[in-house]
Amino acid sequence: MKIFIFPVESKHQKQIGIRTEKFDSDCNALIKKIPRSHWNPATKSWCIPYEKDSWKQCQENLSAYQLIQVDTGSAPEKSREIILTLDLQAEYDAYYTQLYVQRYSLNTIRTYCSSFKYFLSSCKAKHPKDWTLDDFKAWIRSEIEKNKWSEAYQNTIINALKFYFEKVRKETRAFWEITPRKVHKLPGTLSGEEVLKLLSSTDNLKHRTILTAIYACGLRISEVINLRKADIDWNQKRLFIKAGKGKKDRYVVLPEKLALLLQEYFKAYPVQYWFVESTDGGPYSARSIQAVFHRALEKAKVEAYATVHTLRHSYATHLLEAGVDLRQIQKALGHESLKTTEIYTHLTDTNKFRFRSPIDDMNIRI
After folding, report:
1. Which residues, at least 6 apart from 353, have a Cβ–Cβ distance to it below 8 Å?
2. What's the CA gap between 219 and 309, in Å, rounded?
């Protein structure tokens, strides 16, 4: 995969802009590890300090990718428009329609359609209905070798294809043969002290309220964006989370300290409809919240690798450590399956690590 490097100006300072050819979660994680890196919505790129050390770190972290240096004016867009033939465009339109009428979320529609369109761009020689399992294997192998697909992106592509063949064409495909092995990753968390430092370092009341609400109630970033002022039930001290992940409604407890902060916040920011509003009165953007979080992380000098979602993981972990029942945590997080919530037990079950290492019985010089 190609990564484009170009100079940008952010906050009246010259910085190094980084834009990936297409979305890659592994690549983004490597960029985030570069000190003082942040996403700039204005340039639609990652930015790092215009310094030798930062550039050296960038080259080391992204050594597996093809770095291309370009001028500011010629910085390419993240993806080029894919032009389809009439028959393939018809398949795409039917695909979009099926997703739409089944009322999938806008994010899912956007992700699936983008992945499906990318697949269709490889179907010029053979129509999708004529592809065999061997064709899929060869195509995916080629894409992994050429574009360094991550397991997550491969899964996204396969899920998009499963929807097409099973829901649109009503066929059965053995896609399990090309599904990557599941990676068992433990979610990153912050300690209570780190969360306190992070929130305390945020001087802007609006920004502190956003981050506090995410941690205090274990919210997803999309749930904060879609939260309305009317969803705050002051009498019963709870928040109504409408159509969270999987389009499931739920209530979460409104902590006393968050309630006090909200009262202060609404006095300073008389919002009309949304819990957090942008300057034009619409809902706040995910990019803005991510930028707020990373600035707070840097200011608090919290060295741990973290994202906004880490606050939700930390909330669940801290509840479990405090002895809260796992099923209560499941309901608070809006997990459909208890197995999803059980991942936090691996973070808190420290007893299995409390054994004596053989090295402690050796007369070794330290």
Report:
1. none
2. 8
Q: Which of 39, 74, 109 is the last residue of a domain?
A: 74
Residue 246 DSSP code: T
Pairing relationship of beta strands 2-10 and 66-69 according to DSSP bridges: parallel
- The residues assigned a catalytic role are 220, 245, 309, 312, 335, 344
Q: What's the CATH code of the domain at 173?
A: 1.10.150
Whole-structure pTM value: 0.62
> How many residues in the chain?
366
Q: Give pLDDT, residue 75.
A: 38
Q: Please check the confidence at residue 356 and state whether its pLDDT lies above 70.
A: no
User: Is 365 inside a domain boundary?
Assistant: no
Q: Is residue 352, in this structure, part of any structural domain at all?
A: no
What pLDDT does 306 receive? Answer: 85
**In angstroms, what is the C-alpha Rg of the chain?**
23
Are residues 231 and 327 both part of a single domain?
yes
- Quick one: 20 and 59 in the same domain? yes
- Does 329 share its domain with 303? yes
Indicate if 129 and 207 belong to the same structural domain: no
* Average pLDDT rounded to a whole number, residues 207-236: 93
Question: Does 245 or 361 have the greater pLDDT score?
Answer: 361
Which one has a higher pLDDT value, 74 or 115?
115
Residues 233 and 240 sit within 8 Å (Cβ to Cβ): yes
Residues 132, 138: Cα–Cα separation, whole Å? 10
Residue 66 sits in the same domain as residue 105: no
Instruction: Please name every residue paired with 252 in a beta bridge, in sequence order, or none if there are none.
Output: 239
CB atoms within 10 A of CB 297: 26
DSSP state string for 77-123: PSSPPPP--HHHHHHHHHHHHHHHHTT--HHHHHHHHHHHHHHHTT-
Domains held by the chain: number = 3
Determine the structural domain holding residue 23 and report its residue range.
2-74
222 and 319 within one domain: yes
The residues that bridge with 5 in the sheet, in sequence order, are 18, 69
**Which helix or strand (DSSP H or E) is residue 238 part of?**
strand 238-241
**Of 158-172, 303-317, 339-353, the least confident:** 339-353
